[in-house]
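Incident log, structure service

09:12 report received: a user says their structure output differs between two submissions of the same chain.
09:20 pulled the input from the user's history:
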Amino acid sequence: MLHCIKLGGSLITDKNNPLTPRPLVIQRLAREIAAAHRQHPGRQFLISHGSGSYGHVVGRRYHIRSGVSDAAGWRGFAETGYIAGQLNRLVLAALLQAGLPAISLPPSALVTCRNGRIVSGRFEPVLAAMRAGLIPLVFGDVAFDETLGGTIVSTEEVLAALAEVLPPDHLTLVGIVDGVFDGDPLRDTAAKLLPALHVQEMEALRAELGGSHGVDVTGGMAAKVQEMAALITRHRTLRVHFISGETPGRLLSHLLAPDQPLGTTLSF
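09:34 re-ran on a clean worker, output below:
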């Protein structure tokens, strides 16, 4: 069984303060993944993370998502990639310290885009890493674009492209709220948790889904849910889970029993 995990940028960084990681949270999450890996050594994991206050704030400053066309833009493109890589190294260090055989594989060297969408991927390094018993680590990153010059790809977009060659059984998005709500629970105390969602319901729910808290140049919660719904349409046995990583032990409990109700589960 392949279980993909995405540690949200809002969870592992302070999205309201540029370049501010949450090292204790990152280290705890790494230990929880390592504990699940030890208890289920035959299960395969692929780990990913968002950029939070690292990539998003710089990416918005230079408008990289919309394209790159001049020297200043390319400088911003390079700076955005460098800063996203800084956070990636913090996550990688925590995973290695926890005893996980993780290896970072930057999407900027794996994918090519056209008009802001991934159109091709060179994923043999990911497959080779998994064959070797390693745990690939990918993240939201800059990417070259045949039309726009350069752009930013979200972690969800990278995972969706990877799923075409490495389809997962479970994909878990770990954030700062308990799942998907019909509003923003960080601003609206009346927002209600939606414990189970089905792809057929997405049209009715689209207008209700809350945004992502803080600056996010790759879209809020609604965009993430829609991306996952599109992925499930292509891989109908996939189950996508939205859970909180703020409560110690919750990620571990989920990884040990991913079919048990926790947070929000999106399925076909």
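09:41 both user submissions now match this output. Likely a transient worker issue. Closing.
09:42 reviewer note: The mean pLDDT is 91. The longest strand covers residues 2-7.
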